[in-house]
Amino acid sequence: MSGQRMGQAAQWRLGRSNSTRALVLAATALLLLGLCAISVAVGTRDVGWTEIIGGLQGRAETIGQAAVAVRIPRTIMAAIAGAALGLAGAIMQGVTRNPLADPGILGVNMGASLAVVIGMAWFGLVSASASMWAAILGAGVTAVFVYVIGSLGRGGATPLKLALAGAATSVAFSSFTIAVVLPRNDIAGNVRSWTIGGVGGSTFADIRLVLPFLVLGFVLSLLSARKLNSLALGDELAAGLGERVAIARAMAALGAILLCGATTAVCGPIGFVGLVVPHLCRLLAGIDHRWLLPFSAIGGASLLILADVIGRIIARPNELDVGIVTAFVGAPFFIWIVRRQRVREL
């Protein structure tokens, strides 16, 4: 009887007005388009509409048009990377039923980074495609490792234990990364700047490289929406409704790992986007993952573009990498969640 009441309560919470959600989703998409325009126009050098139009047409006759030509792939990369991280965060929170789940907090991003650095230092990985596969492998191994460690002991994989296991793993892998890089002066400079996390210097070649992995990750994640709704009711009730719990978790987790690994390979480990965005999007979309996942993708893209624009403005004529800006936003948000929420399960 309690299971039936849980199911009815969940259905009531999922039953918000779809028309209202659609309108809000359209508004957030328009906001994203506006932020893209601002990202192209604003930087260490502001440009006018005529230069923007010229840059969009592929001309580079003036400094402004050349600046626009550089900012276009940077803006696209920020959008797809932010969407990937926001969506991965929502998936991880749904799979683990952990309000603190995030690719950075659970150590997945740092595992991907360590795998890339080891590949560069010890195995001579130089191609971008090889680094991509190394990052995805590192993200997957780290996700399994953290889940196994968090599952040990009484009570299984509780949200708090997963968060602690992920934080400890992230710190350890960060130290390992430094240890690998220190004796290698030939790669130290590039690795240090990459591990901060940023989208500066992105090119259309980078976008073409990462796009197939992200598309596959997006598809797997969005196909997992109904399964995540079932898992939110609890494993026993989900199994009673005919859901194959292990397969559902594995499919959703694979999508999140592809998104995290591919994004980390080209942008470095960018933290807190996957933590902040899903919580904010639940205020707009509720807990129905069929709506939460698209909201999280658009919200993540908007947040990362906004963070990139702020990083260009706040330190003119220099720039702050987007990973630094998201850390300033995400760290206080993380503390607020820990203090305010019931850190047991979603």
From TrEMBL:
Q: Which GO terms describe its molecular function?
A: transmembrane transporter activity
Entries under SUPFAM superfamilies matching the protein: ABC transporter involved in vitamin B12 uptake, BtuC (SSF81345)
Principal location = membrane
Kindly name one Pfam family recorded for this protein: FecCD
Keywords of this entry = Cell membrane, Membrane, Transmembrane, Transmembrane helix, Transport
Topology within the bilayer: Multi-pass membrane protein
Q: Which residues cross the membrane?
A: 75-92, 104-125, 131-150, 162-182, 207-225, 246-271, 291-310, 322-339
InterPro entries according to UniProt: ABC_BtuC-like, ABC_transptr_permease_BtuC
> Which domain of life does this protein belong to?
Bacteria
Any GO CC annotation of this UniProt entry:
plasma membrane
**Which GO biological process categories is it annotated with?**
siderophore-iron import into cell
Q: Where in the cell is it found?
A: Cell membrane
Give the family, as the similarity comment puts it. Belongs to the binding-protein-dependent transport system permease family. FecCD subfamily.
Name of protein: Iron ABC transporter permease
